[in-house]
Structure formats: C-alpha cells, structure tokens
Amino acid sequence: MRVVIQEDYAKMSVWAANYIADKINSHKEDRPFVLGLPTGSSPIGVYRELIKLNKAEKVSFSNVVTFNMDEYLGLPKTHDQSYWYFMHDNFFDHLVDMKKENINILNGMTDDPEGECRRYEEKIASYGGIDLFMGGIGVDGHLAFNEPFTSLSSRTGVRSLTTDTRIVNSRFFGNDPDKVPSKALSVGIGTVTDSKEVLVLISGHNKARALAATVEGSVSQKWTCSALQMHNGAIIACDEEACGELTVDTYKYFLDMEKNERL
Ligand code: GLP
After folding, report:
1. Which of 15, 191, 214, 217 could tie 187 with a disulfide, CB 3.0–4.6 Å?
2. How is the beta sheet containing 197-202 ordered, strand by strand?
3. Which helix (H) or strand (E) holds 70?
4. CA–CA separation, 14 vs 32, rounded Å?
5. Which domains does the chain have, with CATH numbers?
6. Is the CB of 144 under 6 A from ligand 1?
7. What pLDDT digit, counting tens, does each position of 133-161 carry?
8. Does residue 49 line the site of ligand 1, with CB under 6 A?
C-alpha cells in the first residue's frame, strides 16, 4: 500500500486529480478507461481539479466509462441528495467531452434491486473490469456503503445503513437522521478490490481513526477499509489532519517514501 500525505485538503485533491489524469492519458488500450467514482465531500476537490484539467484540454473523458460506488435506495435522480444528482451537479455536467452513455450509476428507484445490482456487476465485467476506483471512506471506515461487518468479499448489493452513518449524513438532510434513507445500493468490497488500482481519499481530523485502521490495523470486517491492505495497487491520498492517529514511525515512513510526491 502507498500512502501519499499532503499538507492539506487542497493539495491532496490536486495530487489525486493529477494522478487520475495521468492514468487516463497513459491508457493506450483499444477499450475505454474504466473509472470508479465516489460521492461525498472528500472527492469534491478532485472533481474541481479534473474539471479544470478537462477544460484546459489536459485530459479528455471521451474514452472514459465511469461506474459510481453507490446510490440511496428510494431517492429519485431529481432529489438533490441523490448521488445521481450529486455527480451531475459536481462533475459530469461540467466536463466538455464526457459521454452520457458512458456514465453508470446504480438506479435507486429500481423495483428490482437485486437484478439492478447483478446487472451492474455484469456491466463492469463487460468492460474488462475497473482500471482505477477512486473512493472516500466514512468515519467508521466504510468504503462505498459497506458498513462495518460487511464481508470483505462482498459484491454489489443492497445495504442497510447504520444509525451512525445516517447521523453523519444527516447534515445533507436538514440534520434529521430519519430523513436519510435507511438503505442503499452499493458496490461490494470485492467489487472495489477487483479493480486494478484503488485510490482512496482521506482527509480531516474526523477520519484519523479510519486512516489508522486502513493503514495500520488488522485486516478486519469491522473496518471494511482495511481490505485495501490485501490489494496490490492501493493508494491512500490523505492530508496532515487525518494523520493524527498514525504512529510516528508510520507517518515518517510514508513521508520519506513518498517525498517526491509532496506538493
Ligand atoms: C457516504 C458515501 C461514501 C463516502 C462517505 C464519506 O456514506 N456512501 O461513499 O465515502 O459518505 O463521505 P465524506 O467524503 O463526505 O466524508
């Protein structure tokens, strides 16, 4: 696992956006570049930077196919807290050459959730898998909506959200946890770790425990993010604030190993 520590959220975002743009630009295969994407506050800075690079013609999305991590069950696309809405509002609508038919987001209004999830997995497979999955994590270490004790080999499916997650996410729902949907559709931990590369953004004091669990903890279904330790191409991009629970030797090790990446 690589851990790239930047001074702050802004630098973390610039570094991650440049990393993704480089990967897209160096993709020379006939098939499209397949990019997995998250929602949440963590990736907003990366989306802003990628939009800038796209507008400056430094990266093109014309040969990129995207798969989003998750979607609330029961929220229509038009709901301003649906992840469909979030992705278009914060990213897709601002790209100059993203093809609408290349955007894949789980349908939270489906009347056949199991079928929807099965088809999502099949569609990912039809492209030959995901080249790079960008993610964020929850305070409890959930990756996509794979809450603690979700199997580390799980596939795309229906997930129940914990009360903790609904409380954390209630900031987008008028601070009322009851307004946060109790279920979601989500890629599985196995879906994420099947990707060739996984890039997870972790920033802020409130993610410090989750970062330590991801990097230093035991591989455990209690912290689903810890599954990344078993992945051969996992990168954590984080900021200084999130490093508060790392041991000093771990922190120093990664600063040294990744000193050329420091912005
Ligand atoms: C939600 C999403 C996750 C996301 C997490 C963290 O629960 N389902 O995919 O990683 O929130 O969000 P934030 O980046 O806002 O802290």
Report:
1. 191
2. 2-6, 234-239, 197-202, 132-136, 33-37, 64-68, 103-104
3. strand 70-72
4. 24
5. 2-261 (3.40.50.1360)
6. yes
7. 999 999 999 999 999 999 999 999 999 99
8. no
Give the distance from CA 208 to its chain's centroid: 17
The 10s digit of each residue's pLDDT in 41-87 is 999 999 999 999 999 999 999 999 999 999 999 999 999 999 999 99
Is the Cβ atom of 136 under 6 angstroms away from ligand 1?
yes
Helix locations, the chain, DSSP H: 9-25, 44-55, 83-90, 113-126, 163-169, 189-193, 208-215, 248-257
130 contact partners, CB below 8 Å, separation of at least 6: 34, 35, 36, 67, 124, 191, 194, 195, 196
Active site residue 71: no
Give the span between the Cα atoms of 185 and 182, in whole angstroms. Answer: 11
Q: Compute the radius of gyration of the chain from its Cα atoms.
A: 17
Atom of ligand 1 nearest to the CA of 69: 9
pTM for the whole structure: 0.96
